[in-house]
Fold this protein.
Amino acid sequence: MAIAPEKIEVPAGSGAAHDDNFHNPPEKPSAQFHHDADEKTADLRHRELIQSALGKYYVARAGKQSKFQNWGAARQTAAEVKWEAVGHLDQYLREFEEKITARGTKVFWASTEEEARDYIVGVIKDAGARRIIKSKTMTGEEIHLNAALEKEGFEVAESDLGEYIVQLREEAPYHFVFPAMHLSRGEISDLFREKLGTAATDSPEELTMIAREVMREKYIAADVGISGGNFAIAETGMISITENEGNARLSVSLPKIHIAIMGIEKVLPKMSDLALFLPMLATAGAGQALTGYNTLLGGPKQEGEIDGPQEFHVVLLDNGRTKLLADPEQRDALSCIRCGACLNVCPIFKNVGGHTYGTTYQGPIGSVITPHFKEMQTWKHLSSASSLCGACTETCPVKIDLAHHLLQNRRNAATQKPVWWEKWAMKGFAWFMNQPRLYRLALKLAPLAQAFHPLVKGRRLDPLYVWTAGREFPKVKRETFKDFWAKRGNLG
Amino acid sequence: MKITLFIPCFVDSFYPQTGRAMVRIFEKLGHTLDYKPQLTCCGQPPFNAGYWDESRQIAVKVLDALGDAERVVIPSGSCGAMLKVFYNELFIGTPREADARALGEKTFEFSDFLVNELGVTDIGAKFPHAVTWHDGCHGLRELGIKTEPRALLENVEGLELREMGEAATCCGFGGLFSAKFPSISVAMGQVKTKSALETGTKYIVSNDGSCLMHIQGVLDREKRGMKCLHLAEVLNQGW
């Protein structure tokens, strides 16, 4: 059961808490989810903050979607390209490896998060390096890289503004695209004042300048730059990095060594596929026509080039992805381009917030893939924590059938290891519903029982407490529809 | 045409007036009606909980009872989606696969049936009030019903439709979800009622009684004085 990498000790006061589930590793993820969900849903300030932030996103996204000649057709094409790539991962990944290795890049295939961590730590140790600058990488979060690096005594700095903010707060990213979206400008200003001794400010520009000044020194001092990768292009052997701050470019080009880590599903067959995927990622993810900086990296510094790292390593991570690939129903979940659109439209995410999930990948996509990447029984509660409204499926730019995958996870979890009382409750329910006479009798008695309901309503004694704690329960009518129908003389 | 009404459990017990309204409307339009009183439930609760064997035990009774029906009409997008979409998944690879598909093809949600099958958008109803509309998720996203109920409301004399910002946002019911995760469910309900209240209307209308049950529950707890009505109840007014 992969609840958290408990084996790694967390250095006190370090940014290691940046990883998921470090706060309460012994607590069961489902208990932690329920607890945090209760807390966050009651936090009206949080509700307001997220509603307002996403309200701006919806407007921006709608505007940029309308610039596509046909957004629906673009989604269909994107889904087909990813389906082709995911369906032939063996072929495209080998092509990618061959092309990028030819320019002096080292490619490492990591089956597990441990293998990926060990390789990265090994590269840094071999180089005698100490200072690491990172640009945003969710795959790095997935393998709990920061904790592993800090345990080795390396100095790790996040260069993405949002990531830097949550690193200073020693917490996990709130949202895999917008790590600090749960914080107001005032809170960020207070954080900088406390940690960096800067003056209070409400201006986003000034806050950015504060972070930039800190970062500039770290870029220059860093021995190693670590990044993720948004796409790997098989045809040309390049990785594509998308960002808005320019920090990724600096992180990977100034230090002597660049290590990029990405999931094996990030491969695209052709360079020309980016013509669709770059604007699509920007539009779906952030309501932008195109992200500020789009960088293609094809290897370390080549002969005759004046800059770039001396060493370039690409870590290709499996970590459960091939398990998902083997699932014929849910394979399309590997098409995900991590745009975060499904989080942004998810009413569950908007009410419980990102940290409540306790996972690297929050929201609908996280609820779908986490049981595959980790373990079903420990993480199945995420698939139940959905009203199945389908807003995720409707919005996904690569048309992943997220809502139905949540249903399939529920079925797989119950088939694999049914919860005994749920199984009996469902058996009882099915039996009862198949006894129309008993059902009718119960309906006749219900109004009588409901007459006494006020005595216990909304209290723990109330059999309907889960409903009545927050809502009123409807009254069973004395004349049901069937009674009405019988009275009309339609029934004997 | 002979129309068989599928009356979901919550309509039968809590909101029989929705079923009565459908009967009156279809009879006005000159159709004969049928109803299968032995049917109690579509099997969605065990299906959504992941217990598909138990769901099938209920669903086969539906397949049996509705096998010879000409058209089946349901006043709920959610139960409609169960019969039309999810039965196909539930029975795939079983001996009843073809029956499930056949039932799906002749089953319709109420507003979809009126507008797209009968070609009716004007019942001759009068309802001199401002109302706001809630799109039930399953009707909207599994069955693609969005314009049909609006077309019907447009022709109700005196009715003014004021759309709310969160019309297409889930009300938080989600069946067993509302019992398993009550705090999230209620919070979603509150987002919905807040948006509805901002329209300044007195009525929330929808084509899904299960959503309305949840929304009314939240409204009543908040003592908002707003009332939920099924589309059929609105179309049943003034004639």
Summary: The beta strands of chain A are 106-110, 131-134, 155-158, 224-227, 231-233, 238-243, 257-263, 267-268, 293-297, 311-317. Residues 244 and 292 of chain A are 4 Å apart (CA to CA). Chain A touches chain B through 67 residues (CB under 8 Å).
